[in-house]
Amino acid sequence: MQDLGQRARWITDQLFNLGNLDAARTCAPDFLGHLPDYPDAHGPDGLAEFVRGLRTSFPDFGHKVHVSVWEGDQVFLRSSLTGTQRGEFLGIPPTNLPVLMSEMLWLRFDADGRLAELWRETNPVAALDQIGVVPPDGVGPAGRFGHTLKTVARLAALTARQQLAQRRSA
Amino acid sequence: MSQEQFFRERVIEFVNRSWSVADPAALDTLGELVAPGVRFTIGSRAEVSTLAQFQALVRQIKVGQPDLDYRMVDMVVQGNLIAYRLIVTGTHLGMFAGVYPPTGRRLTLSAMVQVRLDEQGCLVEAWQEGDFLGVLAQVGAIPPTGTGPLGQVLHSARTSWRLARAGR
């Protein structure tokens, strides 16, 4: 029997670390990805689109697997993600700040050993915190409001800078 | 019974005792199923690491959603490592996360958990990630993703105001 634990590590390394979108071609034609904060991914193109989006937000995306649990046709991976936010992420313009997120992936393979289904859970609240969007814990409503006003100004400046850069490169 | 089957049943027992609202006292007996010094790591709740903190978190969630229901969707076992997916649903009738006042909405959290057991089948460590951001959107604490930065921040201002009025 094919070692699906190895297979899961190979495909996630190719996609997330190397940005090799051709690796998405190895998944099943009816592939389905359940990805909170992103639209469901359908087929190899959907998977490639999801990876492209992530690597646009974080071009230096790093994906490290800490633990894998494999039984039958399913593999669980616990991993961590690092990257510098150089593109839009969850509607937030580039902040050029580094983020570190914890992540879990659940992969189901079909009888031909192709990736057929993927579930993902991660912790974007930590990332939003690291790029300064979420108010610090323990501040009252007044502190929250102050944080919000500062964030509005900061994000408006970042958005303007992003638009300027886009116009220059166009 | 194989060791893997034994481990599987221990983990199912842990989940049932944790999340059942029909038998809330079972939560206090989790000590029987974990090793001393068990460590919890929950992505969205950095403050939770001990068993007592985990029990406090579950109690807080049950206050927010008194009709809590949970479903283990899949489980994989390899040696002493076990992972499963969990779907938790409930009606938002109390304070959510101790902060967000009741909306009466139906909340659904999808989560994954990975645990490591010792030879006696006791939990040594547990790691959890869940779609906490999705639930925050369901309670109206943040806008649905894709609203854009301005919508996001305006929403945050409205939420601050709403929480202030709720007496926080």
TrEMBL record, chain A:
SUPFAM superfamilies: NTF2-like (SSF54427). One of its GO terms (biological process) is polyketide metabolic process. Transmembrane segments: none annotated. This is Ester cyclase.
TrEMBL record, chain B:
It comes from the Bacteria. Pfam families: SnoaL (PF07366). GO terms for biological process: polyketide metabolic process. SUPFAM superfamilies: NTF2-like. Gene3D superfamilies: 3.10.450.50. This is Ester cyclase. It comes from Kutzneria albida DSM 43870.
